[in-house]
Amino acid sequence: MVEESLIAAIKQLGVEKKYSKDEYLFFAGQDATGFYYILSGEIRLFKMDENARELELRRFGSGNFIGEIILFASDIFPVFAQAVKSSSLIFFPKNRIIEELEQNATLSKLLLTLYAKRCLALSNIIESTKFKTIRYKLIEYLVSLCGKEGACLIELKDRKIDIAKQLGTISETLSRNLKILEAEGLIRVEGRKIFILNCVQLQKEIKPS
Question: Are residues 195 and 172 in the same domain?
Fold first, then answer.
């Protein structure tokens, strides 16, 4: 695996840092002095629109790099990074990594491979989501938590406002779509508990026969 090979090659160049839940790693516009590797926990990346509303881009768990693209592409971070839960990461200073790259062809190849992998993943994400409605994304999210053919009970671990961010919307729009699905008899909502009354019907909406 590219990430594992790369971290093995540069681990000695970094320093471990710990972040509490909701603590920021960096802010959009901040000087990019290095990048991170997640040892444990979860980190979310997001941007702010002109109305100061958050647009969540992606969440990363252990075994992932964050911000490595800034080595060559930018001197500032283009997004915000925040810990979803208590997390442990390794921080790699930009100048130390660049010095190592100049002397280590194997490391350069590993980094280029990681970049290519990230570009392909991003392309796939854009292609798979650009035509999806919030309803589609919500049903896809619910089905991923259920996965049964009949009825099932889901107890949401995240707050609805955080789920809305993951789906690229706001909490009001999420609540409205939940109410629509409930009115259609597909689900029943009781606080953080969501009873999926017919998972098969929901699956048909995202996987038409």
Answer: yes
